[in-house]
Amino acid sequence: MSNEEIFKNEQKDLIFYLNEYYKVSIPHEKSCDILNLYKKYEPLINTNKIIEYQFIKLLNKSLNYEKFIGLDFFEELLELNPSICLKCLKTLIKSTKAKDLNTNELMSLFKKLTDSYPSIDYLIFVKSILKYNLIIKNEEFDENLKLFFINFDLKNLLENHKFYVFSKYLKCVSLYVDNKKHFSKELLEMFIKSGIIDKVEKLNCDEEIKEDLIVKFLILSVEILFKTKPDDLKDLNVKQLFYQNNKLRLYLIFSGKDDDLVIDFCLLCLKQELINSQVIENYFDCDLSNDVLFTKLCACIKFDYQVLIDWLITNETNFLEYFLKYLKTLNSKMSPEFKRQTIKKMLLEKERSTKKFDDDFKKMLELLKQIETKMKALKRSFPYNCAPLIRLLESINLSG
């Protein structure tokens, strides 16, 4: 029998052994045996995905016990197999026992990970830390995480076409920003100076992939901008990031296929305008005003009232929240006699293109009137009381 055949037979035996081991109880005092098991069969585990999966299941089961494996265990496992360690850490953080974790020990482990393992598994681990709010009360931990984001080698990811990892990084930063009331300027400054958009545009890949990466990067940049203290923005060339030849790059979002992304972006800007419109006015003129964005949202679905009705009936998007907030802002802007003509004039003056937007604005007002009519006819089909929405649409006086 050849060495290769012997190796394969050993792998089969180990798969059976792990399956049997998994079925029996694993008391806490034997947790060290799991690590010894890995050391004993390391070559077999590292070269077979099925065995690795069984081993991870075994570790995860032990984490479900009242006395789970401590972080010192993970430090040792990290040296042996970072990928397995990170996957199991994610399970630990998601468990109800996460609240009992020693934050200082977790931070120590985090530092080792930051220095050595900037992989997709590591970003998943970071996402879990953020999602379950394990850093809220630890300033040092928070600072280390911010430095990790700032120093992450995005250029390398793009050059090696690791687009999934790049997207995961953006998601992690977004979660981090969401947890902050205010944000310092360092990350936004890095985004401006990195030239990421230029690097994406030069990539040799599908145009849709490029647009998706650029849009996600820019939306995250807008989130960070909204959270950054106004005084920290004075020395930054913010428009350099968002504009190209006086054209807002973020309008790419409306040419994409991701409706959720469009709606969430419009909602993000609407909320910011309600909280503090100064940032939008200072850096985007009227390009991100609520009225312009809603008109563009309607244009990107070709003013199809049925699409909006579907969004209002289903709970698969955030459109209901967005639509309700938008109608309230539209309704409160001015006195009834000026509503239609003044809104139209305001938008036409601020929007740089003229004829096309004029036509789109008329279509948007007609669309709102259609929505009002259809909602009245389909009132009983809505899974909630839509009367407040109908009253808002009526009060805007769309027929005036």
Topology of helices and strands:
Elements: H1 3-23, H2 31-46, H3 49-63, H4 71-80, H5 82-94, H6 103-116, H7 120-131, H8 139-151, H9 154-159, H10 163-178, H11 186-194, H12 196-201, H13 207-227, H14 238-242, E1 243-244, E2 247-248, H15 259-275, H16 278-284, H17 290-300, H18 305-313, H19 319-332, H20 339-350, H21 355-377, H22 387-395
Antiparallel strand pairs: 1-2
Helix pairs in contact: 1-3, 2-3, 3-5, 4-5, 4-6, 5-7, 6-8, 7-10, 10-13, 15-17, 15-19, 17-21, 18-21, 19-22, 21-22
Summary, kept brief:
This protein is mainly alpha-helical.
Explained architecture:
The structure is a single chain. This protein is an all-alpha fold and 400 residues long. Among the domains are: 152-257, no CATH class; 266-400, no CATH class. It is built from 22 helices and two strands. It is elongated. The protein starts with a helix and ends in a 5-residue tail after the last helix. The relative contact order is 0.05. InterPro entries: LINES_N. Residues 288-332 form the Protein Lines N-terminal domain. This is Protein Lines N-terminal domain-containing protein.
What is the share of helical residues?
A: 55-70%
Q: Which H/E pattern describes the elements? A: HHHHHHHHHHHHHHEEHHHHHHHH
Q: Could you tell me the number of beta strands? A: 2
Overall body shape: elongated
InterPro entries: LINES_N
Protein name: Protein Lines N-terminal domain-containing protein
Pfam families: LINES_N
Domain Protein Lines N-terminal: 288-332
Essential attributes:
400 residues, mainly alpha, 22 helices, elongated, Protein Lines N-terminal domain-containing protein, LINES_N
